[in-house]
Amino acid sequence: MFTDIVGYSALTQKNEALALELLNEHRKLSRPVFSKHNGREIKTIGDAFMVEFESTLDAVRCSIEMQKVIAEYNGAQAQERRIEHRIGIHVGDVVFRGNDVFGDGVNIAARIQPLAEPGGICISEDVARQIQNKIELPLTRLGRGELKNIKLPVTIYRVELPWKKRHLPFAERLEFTFRRRRKKLLTALISVAVLVGLFLILKRTFIPAELVSVAVLPLEITGSSSEDNTWLAEGIGQSIANKLTNLKNLQVTPWATSQRYRDRSVSLKDLAKELGVQRLIVGTIRVLGERVQASIQLIDPFGNQQLWADEFEEKASDIFAVQTKIALGCAAGLKGKLSGEEEGLIAKPPAERADAFEFYIKGSMKMQSETEEDDNIALAFFDRAIELDPKLAEARVGRGAVYSARFFYGFGGKEALDAAMENYKIALELDPQSTNARRGLIAQLWQMGLSEECLKQGAAIRKDELNDIGALFVKADAYWYGGLPDNAVSLYEKILQLDRANQGALYFLIINLNLSVQPQKTIDAGEAYFERFGEDPVVHMYVARSHHMLGNLDAARIHYERALVLSGEHGFTTADLDVSDLYRHLGDTVKAISLLTNLSHRLDGMLQTYPSNFRMAGVLADCYVRIDNYDEAEKLMAQAHEYSYPAHHFLSGAIVLSRAGRSKMARTIFQDILSKGTDLLFELKAMRAMGEKLSEVEKEGFFDKQIALDAKYRALY
Prior knowledge:
Elements: E1 2-5, H1 8-14, H2 16-36, E2 40-44, E3 48-53, H3 56-75, E4 85-89, E5 91-97, E6 100-102, H4 104-112, E7 121-124, H5 125-131, E8 139-145, E9 154-159, E10 185-193, E11 212-216, E12 220-222, H6 230-245, E13 250-252, H7 255-258, H8 268-275, E14 279-288, E15 291-300, E16 305-315, H9 319-335, H10 340-347, H11 354-367, H12 372-388, H13 393-408, H14 414-430, H15 435-447, H16 451-459, H17 469-481, H18 485-498, H19 503-515, H20 519-533, H21 537-550, H22 553-567, H23 574-585, H24 589-609, H25 614-626, H26 630-642, H27 651-659, H28 663-676, H29 679-689, H30 696-699, H31 702-714
Parallel strand pairs: 1-10, 4-7, 11-13, 11-14, 12-14
Antiparallel strand pairs: 1-4, 2-3, 3-10, 5-6, 5-10, 7-9, 8-9, 14-15, 15-16
Helix pairs in contact: 1-2, 2-3, 6-9, 6-11, 11-12, 11-13, 12-13, 13-14, 13-15, 14-15, 15-16, 15-17, 16-17, 17-18, 18-19, 19-20, 19-21, 20-21, 21-22, 22-23, 23-24, 23-25, 24-25, 25-26, 25-27, 27-28
């Protein structure tokens, strides 16, 4: 069973002290009811807790009494001190791992809970069948529908509570994506989930009144040759979204967000709610020989109205004409009459040649598959696009992204990083307004340890651009890589206000919340990510780190281990380091050393192939210091320093060396970092938050020096 407190987020913003007081009161009221009905509290998750029951009937009786207790409490309270929550119950397959519970039993309960009224209870048909004639209260069948990522439709019932007045309609279906596990166990489950903070960013619309918000959904390609022409639908949809972004008073969902809805299974109204937009652009593309037909509609999904529609037919070789006509029609439907300047912006083609644009789009689509083989194909497409149109900046950005990924994941050495840097710089020379190129360059500058240069790139963004999502990403990334993660947090939050379905913004927000030592907010945001987008090894890792900071070691271990499983043999290797630290704290040094030994062998092999990949060298140094092989760690760091490897890649290992009293090389690393960037400060904060003892770096005043340097960099803004 899942329940959430209604209106808690709004109250937190108005009166945080009262919100916390009521949250504590809610827990005091609920916990005695759990134990009365044979409930066993499994864990707390921030503002939430999970309880197991031996029977479905116990869970339902508990939920009824919980609502009754809360209703009686509310009867003696002023309006502002009342508590209301929703409850959803399902019985199904779950798995116990450590002190945590996962599975479809949890997933479906979580999806049922939002369907209940405030103060009410909704249950699945499976639950209704098991409690039929066993409780005195009647059940009302509300309907049957599909829940996201649940294979079969689910029938929902409402428990009719005698003290509740029927004044609210059945809530509209909400969709979530929860984590799944393989091992199965049948049980009834109750979980009180107080949804606060970052999750609500994804469920509210923050579009200013003067803006019209719109999303261009992926166009459907039809006809016998549809498979060969998917690039056409991709290119037209992407260009329409980019063209509309140039217009004032329009808030356009980025194409990267819209792409996730290519295979949509929900109504357009629900999809618009999820995206947080007022208008949608939908349509189909059909190729007939040498000609392209397009049928496009601008719709108001909430009023179920078609605001504008048209059909177009052009030569397949003149894709730019199709893009321009569609964008002009949609813009007129959204804004009315356009100015001459706006028409000019829309008419500007995305490339000088249509065939170059085709190769660029095909390269972008191939790169999304994330395999080394497909990356090689993507590079060939980008090269061909550049050959046909040397001024096509975004093709250079694509090449930069491929080489950047090769370096980051250890499949290329410094030559891959240099190639990425070169392509991003060329792209910016060709198009100084390319936010994709600037973001890519910032990431490469960080790899080189040039934090101040990252901040300078962000400083190039003007204040009047900060309602533009691309510009916000540049500024936020600059803060992050420049060593000011707490500054980055507010900007990623603003992106989510403008584009609440933006997966990347929530992903980076989680990282920066952890780096700025906000563990509970990191956990809340991580749970929201899992619910919205599914599992991710990096998100699991940062959620694990945050549990580690709070002392929730069992929860930390579960998330660390899940990160390792999801990342695979060649995945995000720093997760191995974190989980080994956890096992060391738990006293299981054998398992910690086993993990690190395996990782060091893997990294050593990768470094033999790509000896100039200093990111991998940094992780290997961390391995060595964690298995007390200080000689090898110092040897590797000294060699890296001799070859001018960026010092911040060896920071964690240097901190460990310092704590062990082997501080000569560590001091060299710290000095290099202080001379170039701000990374040292948030790393030390995180180490301190995870319970690590003071290191030589702090005892010798490096921490204070870093704070002063931090203030200097903030002055850039």
